[in-house]
Specification:
Its main location: membrane. With about 280 residues, the protein is mainly alpha-helical. It is built from 11 helices and no strands. It has one domain (about 1-25, about 35-255): Glycerol uptake facilitator protein (Up-down Bundle), CATH 1.20.1080. Helix 1 runs antiparallel to helix 2 and helix 4 packs antiparallel against helix 5. The termini are far apart.
């Protein structure tokens, strides 16, 4: 319980520090620099996301059930505090595909997310070095080493798992867009927790390229190329499949086509105009 208590304090501290940073950002960025607020929000939110994921990943070694339960709570908190930021390059790519962002803005946001993911990893290693719990102390003595979950997993299987995770989460977000926010965040968090439970033992169920770059790429047992295919290509394909299915295929089938009677009526009108 001491280990869990320390991890809870760490998570609470991460949320508190990031929330203070969000409150301070508008005051620090005034005048012409106000346009940088969206990028600052991405940096803060990505640091929050990655730092919490690092702590939960470490906690799962000693208390996997508690770590899984906290995944749900943390997912809800992320949704309530991000305020328009995504912390996920695939979500930024989706906005670009849907013409919500221009290419330059999307590239800048993605760069901020990857830079923030690296900063979060460094910050968490510094925090663990204080040895607040036995878990942190053991991790520090091991040189913060970790083993890649895809070390002994076939490449295609790992890509398929990350693709499926991204697809399912994006589908949940799509289907709940019209749901009231206070219910929507819990529904999406429940789906994320289920996905982590189902795919966590295979790939870690990251479905976020920036988070994977921070949490999985430094681990031994896998190459950079394999990590890139699994944790970058997999989620991108998952988002692409979801967009194609729900925005193109299903939309095409659900769009009402003119009835046979209406078609005949239009044909009669065209004949009259010709005469």
């Amino acid at each position: 319980m001491a280990v869990v208590s320390v991890s809870l304090c760490m998570l609470a501290g991460i949320f508190l520090i990031c929330e203070i940073a969000r409150k301070a950002t508008p005051r620090l960025l005034s005048g012409k620099r106000r346009d940088c607020g969206v990028y600052a929000a991405e940096i803060i939110s990505t640091i929050q996301l990655c730092a919490c994921a690092h702590e939960l990943k470490l906690l799962s070694e000693d208390a996997p059930e508690i770590a899984l339960s906290l995944t749900y709570v943390v997912s809800v908190m992320h949704a309530l505090t991000f305020r328009g930021a995504t912390g996920n390059p695939t979500a930024t790519l989706e906005r670009y595909w849907c013409d919500s962002l221009d290419g330059v803005c999307a590239l800048r946001r993605t760069a901020c997310q990857f830079a923030a993911s690296v900063a979060a990893g460094v910050a968490m290693r510094r925090a663990w070095a204080f040895g607040f719990s036995d878990l942190h102390a053991r991790h520090e003595r091991a040189g913060f080493a970790c083993t890649s979950p895809i070390a002994n997993v076939h490449l295609l299987e790992a890509v398929a798992v990350e693709l499926a995770c991204a697809f399912v989460v994006h589908a949940a977000v799509t289907f709940t867009r019209d749901v009231e926010e206070k219910y929507r965040v819990h529904a999406v968090a429940a789906v994320i927790t289920t996905v982590v439970y189902a795919g966590g033992s295979t790939t870690g169920a990251v479905f976020n390229p920036a988070l994977a770059f921070s949490a999985q790429f430094p681990c031994s047992g896998s190459t950079f190329a394999k990590n890139g295919l699994v944790y970058w290509l997999g989620p991108v394909l998952g988002i692409a499949c979801s967009l194609l299915l729900f925005n193109k295929v299903i939309l095409a089938f659900t769009t009402k086509s003119p009835s046979h009677k209406d078609q005949n009526l239009h044909a009669v009108k065209r004949k009259k105009k010709r005469n």
